[in-house]
């Protein structure tokens, strides 16, 4: 990341009036949540083909396998804290520049950093919540975790329902949430600056969002550690850490008061 790149991003953000940020797993790696594709990421340790919606729905064995993984991944999300990248996006919202964050993440960290619920569009759901698929009763994922840690292999809804409990995440092979997809596309098209942070931009249909924004005339900026397939369409690409880049840029736009 060069000083000139930081200056350019600072200028783009300073002059923008309606920024839409699009975040992926890379915005949360500095909070201690591994991404999927980097070395050491989730797919180095688990086979994604096993954890599909179809396998979850089809058999108790599929659900058992899913919860075995969920029991170990949820504590990582539970103990993670928002990092300077999440906080920088909140600063942009407080400055009246950020319209919303469209996120592929399921970790709830944008909300925990201080963005209101209605400013976070979650395309892949939220891992801190769960729900019964029969009666729709909501469950905190925390409560389900207590059952898993007490030895329950496949959590079921309280009697008399006994329905299948599913986390409120969008699993592989599951339909995308219609309302969120429509809302995300509408807001992407209304943005004047579309800022991608920490996404490989290979997971579709979420990865169409920067293209919708671009087609509608937005400036496209990408902050990511590695190349993405849409770098060629971007007005600015910064290779760097989400936390370092966003914190430096917001410090230039809204300097923090010096401590005494
Ligand atoms: P990804 O794993 O495909 O890619 C993450 C990208 O972030 C990579 O290109 C990597 O180079 C980059 N990156 C990693 N650390 C970074 C950092 N500190 N600063 C800047 N860039 C960094 O993730 P994705 O594109 O978001 O898509 C994969 C899917 O994984 C998503 O659908 C999401 O639902 C899910 N996921 C979510 C979480 C989470 O909620 N935190 C974690 C893992 C996976």
Largest beta sheet: strand ordering: 3-2-1-7-8-9
First-residue to last-residue Cα separation: 31 Å
Name the hetero compounds present: nicotinamide-adenine-dinucleotide
**CA-based shape:** elongated
Give the beta-strand count.
9
Count of DSSP-assigned helices: 10
CATH class of the largest domain: Alpha Beta
**Compute the gyration radius: what is it?**
19 Å
* Superfamily (CATH H level) name of the largest domain: TPP-binding domain
Calculate the mean pLDDT score and round it.
94
Helix content: 25-40%
Number of domains: 2
The helix-strand sequence is HEHHHHEHEEEHEHEHEEH
Stated plainly, the CATH topology of the largest domain is called Rossmann fold
In short:
The chain is built from ten helices and nine strands. The protein has helices spanning 3-15, 42-45, 53-58, 60-79, 84-94, 109-113, 141-149, 178-190, 209-215, 242-253, and strands spanning 19-23, 98-103, 120-122, 125-132, 138-140, 165-169, 193-197, 219-224, 236-239. Bound molecules: nicotinamide-adenine-dinucleotide (NAD).
Please provide a written account of the structure.
The chain is an alpha/beta fold and 260 residues long. It has two domains: 1-33 and 81-124 and 177-260, TPP-binding domain (Rossmann fold), CATH 3.40.50.1220; 35-79 and 125-169, SIR2/SIRT2 'Small Domain', CATH 3.30.1600.10. Helices cover 38% and strands 17% of the residues. The strands form two sheets. Strands 3-2-1-7-8-9 form a six-stranded parallel β-sheet, sandwiched between helices. The chain has a three-stranded antiparallel β-sheet with strand order 5-4-6. The longest helix has 20 residues, at 60-79. The two termini are 31 Å apart. The mean pLDDT is 94. Bound molecules: nicotinamide-adenine-dinucleotide (NAD). Nicotinamide-adenine-dinucleotide binds next to loops.
